[in-house]
Amino acid sequence: MRIEEQYRKTGYFWLPEKEDKKIPGLLSISDSGCIDLEIVGLFDESIDALKRNDDIDRIIGHVENDGLVTLDNCFYIKKSFPPGGISKSKIYAHRALIGAAWGQDEPVSFNTFSFAVDCLDEWIGISGISVDYDRKRQTAKVSYNPPEKIGFTLDNGMKLEICFSYKLPSCPSLKEAKITQKAYFKLESGELCDLNDFTTIAFKITHLMCFAMDAIVAIKNVSATSSEIQRDLGDGTQYSVPIKIYYQSIPFSEKVPKRTWHQDMIFSYAAIKHNAQQVFNSWISAYEYLAPAFGLYFSTKIGAQKYLDGKFLALAQGLEVHHRRTNDEKLMEPEVFQSLVSTVLAACPDAHIDWLKGRLMHGNEINLAKRLKRLIEPFKEYLGTSNERSKFIRKVVDIRHYLTHYNQNLEDEFVKGRELWTLCLKMEVIFNLHFLNIVGFTAEEIKTVVENCQPLKRKLQKT
Fold first, then answer.
1. What is the DSSP string of 25-43?
2. N or C: less crowded end of the chain, CB within 10 Å?
3. What angle do CA 456, 458, 463 make, to 5 degrees?
4. How do residues 307-366 score in pLDDT, each as one tens digit?
5. Residue of 123, 258, 245, 108 lying closest to 184 (CA atoms)
6. 347: helix, coil or strand?
7. How far is CA 2 from CA 188, 197, 222, 247, 309, in A?
């Protein structure tokens, strides 16, 4: 999670149903969403508590300016309680809810969940700001018409909206008149939904944005509302109180990406606006069967593998998983294979029967080379000549086997540096082309993307 300004608030904290014992403390939330609570002493000051590594389900607090807070899934990082002195203990929390307090076992549920991601305004490319210049008279007229919300219905029953917040000049100024617009996503449910249901969908949408922009973008500015948390404006009118939410989420990169032009992206909103609902639903649904492949691909983008050979292995394994999860091709018909297995086992000595069963367990699976060939086939026109594609497949298979088993017979096939890097780039391209297919791009639309998308063109040129 992107935290654009570090959050540091002092206040008092206590355990649910133990409001009579409040402890002063400092709540800190840093970039990436790391939540630390530093308190004076301990919530439980007994000798036994000092020896235990207690987890704390929930902590309630009241901090300066923001009022009530709820910290969930907490545990001590540091315990300190020296007799006769002032000591500080440190607690880590998995998430912070700013603006309300929940009871010990009270579920955290909401009706709406709003969030933005890095570079979302650039991806959407819609602005209500217009500027009319009159160069002859040396005048300019700036106007603003808020863009309309864009709504979609998700297959899980939720509604997804692309919304626009804005700030207008508050009063006349001699030096500046500033209009600011920011886009964000809003998930909405007619029924109260557990917070985890919202964060799961937001995680998948954030990954879609990472793919679309070909960059690691982080979720930010998260808030939620509930029909059960209302505030009176004073005239009898009720409104839902926005609850700010912080948690450590992936993907995340310390460096904020820059995406200025649509050419820097694999596709922008303009490319999918005619069928955006299908794109969002197709991507979210794909997680039901492709989550491991998505995880391996995006792990290479966030730098989870510190070395190039680790990145290579993750991409090769990801492509293998992708094909396995989307295709049930076997070497032979299951009935034929089972008959063959029965014949072989019948002729095997009893002493070796268990060994042979283990060898035959995956005997009907096609190998990595065939899986790569099947994945390349729909997009072979972008991936070189027949000879180049065969060489690429052979290289990937040999290096994957070497890095998995370090077989000395394959040591001469291992490549390093730029050559290994170009193999990784080509595997990324295969992933990207299949991702486009998953979200509903036609063959002609994919061709247009390849011809105009700078990230894909660079990857293909370098390979």
1. EEEEEETTTEEEEEEES-S
2. C
3. 100
4. 899 999 999 999 999 999 999 888 888 889 888 888 888 888 889 888 888 888 888 888
5. 123
6. coil
7. 22, 20, 10, 10, 29
Six token digits for residue 380: 């072979």
Please answer whether residues 276 and 26 qualify as being in contact, where contact means their C-beta atoms are separated by less than 8 angstroms.
no
CB 10 within 8 A of CB 35: no
pLDDT at residue 154 above 80? yes
Query: Tokens 């492709």, residue?
Result: 290
**Contact present, 327 and 354 (Cβ < 8 Å):** no
CA gap 128, 148 in Å, rounded: 9
64 pLDDT band, cuts 50/70/90, is very high
Q: What is the dihedral of CA 283, 289, 293, 298, to 10 degrees?
A: 40
Above 70 in pLDDT, residue 83?
Answer: no
CA–CA distance, 454 with 446 (Å, rounded to integer): 13
Please report, for residues 297, 307, 386, 401, 425, the alpha-carbon distance to residue 421 in angstroms, rounded to integers and kept in the order given.
Answer: 15, 11, 21, 17, 6
Cβ-contact 253, 218 below 8 angstroms: yes
Residue 462 DSSP symbol = H
d(C-alpha 90, C-alpha 75), whole Å = 9
Burial environment of residue 283 by CB neighbours within 10 A (0 to 12, 13 to 18, 19 or more): buried
**Tokens 């606006």 correspond to what residue?**
273
Return d(Cα 245, Cα 223) in angstroms, integer.
5
- % of the chain beyond a pLDDT of 70: 95
CB-side neighbour CA atoms (13 Å) of 341: 18
- Please work out, in degrees rounded to the nearest 5, the angle formed at the alpha carbon of residue 368 by the alpha carbons of 363 and 374: 110
Task: Output the pLDDT for position 81.
Answer: 67
Q: Nearest 5 degrees, angle CA 121-CA 127-CA 131?
A: 135
Global pTM exceeds 0.85: yes
